[in-house]
Amino acid sequence: MLKRGDVVKLVRVIAETHEAEIGCDECFEQLDIFAETELSGAEAGAAMPLVGDHLDKCTDCRSKFEALLAALRGT
Ligand SMILES: [Zn+2]
Q1: Which of 6, 53, 68, 73 could be a cystine partner for 2, CB 3.0 to 4.6 Å?
Q2: How far is the CA of 57 from the centre of ligand 1 (A)?
Q3: pLDDT string in tens for the chain (75-residue length)
Protein backbone atom coordinates (compact mmCIF):
# COMPACT_ATOMS: atom_id res chain seq x y z
CA MET A 1 0.00 0.00 0.00
CA LEU A 2 1.35 3.41 -0.95
CA LYS A 3 1.60 6.18 1.59
CA ARG A 4 -0.77 9.08 1.11
CA GLY A 5 1.98 11.50 0.03
CA ASP A 6 3.23 9.05 -2.57
CA VAL A 7 -0.25 8.57 -3.96
CA VAL A 8 -0.78 12.30 -4.30
CA LYS A 9 2.55 12.73 -6.12
CA LEU A 10 1.77 9.83 -8.40
CA VAL A 11 -1.68 11.01 -9.32
CA ARG A 12 -0.38 14.52 -10.07
CA VAL A 13 2.05 13.06 -12.58
CA ILE A 14 -0.73 11.06 -14.19
CA ALA A 15 -3.15 14.00 -14.19
CA GLU A 16 -0.59 16.19 -15.95
CA THR A 17 0.11 13.55 -18.57
CA HIS A 18 -3.40 13.67 -19.96
CA GLU A 19 -5.01 16.83 -21.16
CA ALA A 20 -8.01 15.63 -23.10
CA GLU A 21 -10.87 13.37 -22.09
CA ILE A 22 -9.94 9.81 -21.40
CA GLY A 23 -11.63 6.64 -22.57
CA CYS A 24 -12.67 3.54 -20.68
CA ASP A 25 -9.28 1.84 -21.14
CA GLU A 26 -7.35 4.74 -19.67
CA CYS A 27 -9.91 5.17 -16.95
CA PHE A 28 -9.63 1.51 -16.02
CA GLU A 29 -5.81 1.68 -15.95
CA GLN A 30 -5.99 4.44 -13.35
CA LEU A 31 -9.01 3.19 -11.48
CA ASP A 32 -7.07 1.38 -8.75
CA ILE A 33 -5.01 4.49 -8.01
CA PHE A 34 -8.15 6.62 -8.06
CA ALA A 35 -9.84 4.25 -5.61
CA GLU A 36 -6.79 4.16 -3.31
CA THR A 37 -6.59 7.93 -3.37
CA GLU A 38 -10.26 8.11 -2.46
CA LEU A 39 -9.77 5.65 0.40
CA SER A 40 -6.68 7.52 1.66
CA GLY A 41 -8.96 10.49 2.32
CA ALA A 42 -7.51 12.66 -0.46
CA GLU A 43 -9.69 14.33 -3.07
CA ALA A 44 -9.42 11.77 -5.83
CA GLY A 45 -11.64 13.80 -8.13
CA ALA A 46 -9.42 16.86 -7.67
CA ALA A 47 -6.15 14.95 -8.05
CA MET A 48 -7.35 12.99 -11.08
CA PRO A 49 -10.07 15.12 -12.67
CA LEU A 50 -10.13 13.20 -15.93
CA VAL A 51 -10.89 9.93 -14.20
CA GLY A 52 -13.48 11.62 -12.01
CA ASP A 53 -14.99 13.21 -15.10
CA HIS A 54 -15.16 9.90 -16.90
CA LEU A 55 -16.73 8.19 -13.90
CA ASP A 56 -19.44 10.84 -13.87
CA LYS A 57 -20.30 10.11 -17.49
CA CYS A 58 -19.73 6.40 -17.79
CA THR A 59 -21.96 4.07 -15.79
CA ASP A 60 -19.82 1.08 -16.82
CA CYS A 61 -16.67 2.48 -15.25
CA ARG A 62 -18.65 3.87 -12.35
CA SER A 63 -19.88 0.42 -11.38
CA LYS A 64 -16.35 -1.00 -11.76
CA PHE A 65 -15.08 1.78 -9.54
CA GLU A 66 -17.70 1.13 -6.89
CA ALA A 67 -16.95 -2.60 -6.94
CA LEU A 68 -13.24 -1.82 -6.58
CA LEU A 69 -13.88 0.54 -3.67
CA ALA A 70 -15.98 -2.10 -1.94
CA ALA A 71 -13.25 -4.70 -2.48
CA LEU A 72 -10.53 -2.39 -1.13
CA ARG A 73 -12.63 -1.48 1.88
CA GLY A 74 -13.33 -5.15 2.57
CA THR A 75 -9.68 -6.15 2.92
ZN1 LIG B 1 -15.86 4.23 -19.19
Answers
A1: 6
A2: 8
A3: 667 778 777 777 666 655 568 999 999 999 999 999 999 999 999 999 999 999 999 999 999 999 999 999 986
Query: What angle is formed at CA 65 by the lines to CA 72 and CA 30, rounded to 5 degrees?
Result: 90
What is the distance in A from the centroid of ligand 1 to the CA of 35? 15
Angle CA 69–73–75, to nearest 5: 125
Q: What angle do CA 16, 11, 8 make, to 5 degrees?
A: 125
How many Cα atoms occupy the beta-carbon half-sphere of 15 within 13 Å? 20
Q: What's the domain range around 39?
A: 4-74
How close is the Cα of 25 to the center of ligand 1, in Å? 7
Number of domains in the chain: 1
Task: Give the pTM.
Answer: 0.70
